[in-house]
Each structure stands twice: as structure tokens, then as C-alpha cells.
Amino acid sequence: MYPYKNPSGSVLAFIISIFVIINLANSQPLYPPFCSDPINKTSDPGFSSNLTILLDTLSSKAVVNSFYNESSDGLHGLFLCRGDVSINVCQNCVINATRELKSHCLTNKTAIVWFEHCMVRYSSTNFFGKEQILPNLRLCNTKGHTSQTDVDAFSLMYPIITEASNSDTMFKANNFAPNNNESEKRYGLVQCTRDIDAAQCSHCLGQLMEKIRNSSCLGKNGWRILAPSCKLRYELYPFYELPPQAPPSAPEPKPGDKDTGKGGNGTTNKIIISVSSIAAFAAVLVSGLQTSDQASTSVSCKV
């Protein structure tokens, strides 16, 4: 006899390894923090401790907020989580981001860091309510395409900029299928910090689109640009969290159908369906990881 092997166990192990890889990737910044304006330790000996208190406060507020700004002891800070992620993902991201700032910028009066799911910044100058696009981080896919894809990208991005600017969350993610061809869908996401108003949000995102138009990112399969007050991203694959879909309703039983009970083929079918669903989900995750890596190969930073 051959030993029995449980296929669901190996698939689950594979899924766990994928999630470990994703968590490791998401716990790292997209680029090292921008730290500027170093302090004079002699004239301001309490700066680092005051900054630590501010960053700890921001981390604690991420338990229930996706955006928060705070002023304390002459320092001003905020965090913004991507509008599609859960509060748990948001909190973990802010914790990692504030830890990164503590490690690299504890003696700087101004700093900002971007992670996949959040951004954290602080300054000794009050920046709340002020639109800022510097410094910014630009990432481009290394693969190119035809000029028609740029037209499709702009057809997607400009409408969602308008929608995001006029929404309470200042966030919008959507997709666009050229000529209703589902196999050629494009995906876009835009977001602004909620301390600026609608006009500033629209202007900020418009400025970033102009930077894309005038950069080496034009003609690439995907790109993103992140600034202190806003950010945008465009890809040929789904990279944001899709809203959960309602499960299909069970069909009405037909006359004469027999109840299979708690055992038999009914239980076996459920196991097979579950394992198949997990395997399909794993395939999507692996594909997303590979494409995301390609989209982050070329980096350009402007201060």
C-alpha cells in the first residue's frame, strides 16, 4: 500500500510560505526614509525624546484610524494608510514605518517614509493643510509598451482623480477595459492626505500626472509616484484589495432531491472545493508578487 498523502496540507503549507514572503516584503519601506534638516544636539537636547513620543502616538492611533495627524512639543506628524487595506494591515504598516523613522531620522527635524500600505511623515514646521509634492518617489516598470497603453492609462487615471478629490476619503481605485476587452484591463489608484481640501487634492494629483508625462515612466507597463500630500499608481494587473463579493445564493432544491446528510460525497466535495480555491488563490498571489517585483525595478527620487 502507498501511504496516504493529504493534498490540502501541502497546499496550506505553500499558502503559509506565500504569506510569509508578502509580510516580509510589506514590512520594508519602498525606499529608505527621506531625513533632512539635522538638529543641533547641544541646543535641542530633548528633540529625540519628543519625536519618539510623537511617533509612538501615531502608532497608537493607527489602531482605529486610517489617517491621523498630531502636533506635540513643536513637532507635527501624520500617517496615511492606503484606502483599501484593513485596519490591522494599516496598524502594522504604521508601526513598521515609525520604527523605520526612529532608526534613521531621530536627529532630523523633517522626515518621510513610504511603505506599500502607508506613509508616515513629521516636521518641526507645521505642514497641515498645505499641499506638498516634494520630496517624491517615482517607481517605473522596466517593460515598455505601445503608445496606446498610455492613452488607456490617462483614460483611467484622470476620472478617478476627479472622483477621489470629491470624496470624503480622498481615495479611489478602479479599472478600465479598453474596447470592453476584459483581458486587457488596466488598474489605477489615487489618494490624498485628508488634511488638504478637494482643490488641493486635485491639483496635487494633477501635478504628479504631469511628472509621469514628462518622465521615463511614460511608455512603461506600470508606474507610481508618491508625494507627501498625494500619490497615484497604474498597473496592468490588480494590485489593490478588491471589495469582498457576496457568496452566490444556494439553488432551490428540486423535487425528488435527496439529502446527503453530514457524511458521504457531500463532505468530500466540500474538501475538494476548498483545496482548489486555495490553490487558485495561491496562483494569483504568486503572479502578483512576480509582477510587482518587475514594477519596482527602476527607481527615481526627486527632492
UniProtKB/TrEMBL annotation:
<feature type="region of interest" description="Disordered">
    <location>
        <begin position="245"/>
        <end position="266"/>
    </location>
</feature>
<feature type="domain" description="Gnk2-homologous">
    <location>
        <begin position="29"/>
        <end position="127"/>
    </location>
</feature>
<protein>
    <recommendedName>
        <fullName>Gnk2-homologous domain-containing protein</fullName>
    </recommendedName>
</protein>
<feature type="signal peptide">
    <location>
        <begin position="1"/>
        <end position="27"/>
    </location>
</feature>
<dbReference type="InterPro" id="IPR038408">
    <property type="entry name" value="GNK2_sf"/>
</dbReference>
<keyword id="KW-0732">Signal</keyword>
<dbReference type="InterPro" id="IPR002902">
    <property type="entry name" value="GNK2"/>
</dbReference>
<keyword id="KW-0677">Repeat</keyword>
<feature type="domain" description="Gnk2-homologous">
    <location>
        <begin position="131"/>
        <end position="239"/>
    </location>
</feature>
<dbReference type="Pfam" id="PF01657">
    <property type="entry name" value="Stress-antifung"/>
</dbReference>
